[in-house]
Design goal:
Chains A, B: It holds the Pfam family FCD. Two copies of one chain form a homodimer. Chain A contains eleven helices and three strands; from the N terminus they run H-E-H-H-E-E-H-H-H-H-H-H-H-H. The first copy, chain A, is mainly alpha-helical. The longest helix of chain A has 28 residues. The structure holds a DNA duplex.
DNA sequence: GCAACATCGGTGTTGACACTCTTCATGGTT
DNA sequence: AACCATGAAGAGTGTCAACACCGATGTTGC
């Protein structure tokens, strides 16, 4: 059913959403897109349907498509879903990993350690931040792959991309506080990663699962605070956990 | 984007798949369906795309759509996904449930206890089997609802329906062995449900999660054996765990 | 200021056409 | 005679442009 033109349209729109050119909430006009891609509206419609599947796009009857936009409640729910899947995958990875999987995980971990040390030592963190984020992602992907459950892997990846789109990428994490605080956080994250790696390498399924769960819960809380600040337009002070909870009920 | 006709087509095809009229692997011709529903091919195409989203339909370029068919590997992966989500949801339910949620869970549990006793006591199990299955489903749904995570709830429901379609419903479970064995199994399942309920009512998140995990793992193993038997065409004897593992690699 | 109405942008739907894949028949080869 | 390669026909999907319809916006009259 899907065919060449549909795939071209799908790749084109997907890329522009993931790159941030199309931001959350932005309307996606079928005619405009069709003209840009130089195909008719039909394959564009198909592509948008498929993107809706991925969760990247919202479609409402007669109102058209727009880039997915979440409120705090949805964001929290999605994050929790990710936590459930990714910690389960970590538990599987502890049991199912091959030597090659383990090497890949360790490689990403070593790179993260190297980069974190460099960032903590340097005055200017910017040059290495991108690399650090990339290695972090590689670490998590390597673990998913080691779980040997392709379906779960795809699902987690989907949620990762969705997370990236709706959280607005670097809009949030960048410069969220004094460098010292960020450094402390980075070292804590690194330590957690080492714990996770140890559990997986040791074949301890339950521990791998738990450690990954704690790690992600911590990340999620961090993200939720950042997103809540951004949504409320309050940039100067943190919301308390209770305020955060309530703001999710809008 | 979706509209009346698309929805009509979606409901129509979905219902026939879920009712078992369209069995796994069966081709779904756009023209034929369009003629039956009395709309053009476009809304039918849209509906099939949406059903692909749900996982109920497979679409390949230029080859058309067919009802989803899984091999053992995919089935195992899907089951494991369900386990991850549903046990996590049980953990959430222990913390987030309202009194009404708890009543709903207890109601289904009481009904199951009543029906199980009746079945064990009776010679002919048939009249009550349908009811028992329904209450079992209600029990699990009530727990999902108590988790207060709508996204997770939808995802679990999706997997439930998918499971129902690809496993071929009653084709497998019915008459899988002597009644005494089935009775033993049913009592064990009931006992596990009671454990799960106790953990949730007691607000013990970790225990609820673990108990649900054990319960589902047991169910999955049971299903995998049944499916492997069915796929191999061997109905007289059980596969060993090892044989089962290998047969998944086809 | 508000309600009914006209306008317009954009989606939903349709039927026709182009293209791809499969199947089956034909003919040549070993 | 059996087998593979070639090609033609048919079935079904992918794509297109035009039309129908809905919802939002702005305008008119009261």
């Amino acid at each position: 059913m899907k065919s060449v033109n549909t795939d071209v349209a799908y790749d084109y729109i997907r890329k522009r959403i993931l790159s941030g050119e199309f931001s959350p909430g932005q309307a996606l006009l079928t005619e405009t897109l069709a003209a840009e891609i130089e195909v008719s509206r039909t394959p564009v419609r198909d592509a948008l349907r498929k993107l809706e599947t991925d969760g990247l796009v919202t479609i409402r009857a007669h109102l058209g498509a727009s880039v997915k936009k979440m409120n705090l409640k949805e964001f929290r729910e999605m994050s929790d879903l990710r936590l459930a899947l990714e910690s389960h995958a970590a538990g599987l990875a502890a049991v199912n990993h091959t030597d090659a999987d383990l090497s890949a995980i360790k490689f990403a971990l070593d790179a993260m350690r190297f980069l974190t040390d460099k960032i903590v030592a340097a005055d200017n963190e910017q040059p290495f931040l991108g690399d650090l984020v990339r290695e972090d992602i590689r670490f998590h992907i390597a673990i998913m792959a080691a779980s040997k459950n392709e379906l779960m892997q795809r699902e987690i990846m989907r949620l990762h991309l969705l997370h990236r789109v709706v959280s607005g990428l670097s809009n949030i994490d960048g410069g969220a506080g004094p460098k010292v605080e960020s450094d402390v956080r980075r070292l804590a994250v690194l330590a957690k990663h080492e714990d996770i790696y140890r559990a997986i390498a040791g074949g301890n399924s339950r521990e791998a699962k738990n450690e990954m769960g704690y790690h992600l819960q911590e990340l999620i809380d961090h993200n939720l605070h950042a997103l809540a600040r951004a949504e409320a337009g309050v940039l100067s002070r943190d919301l308390t956990a209770e305020e955060l909870l309530y703001s999710g009920h809008l």
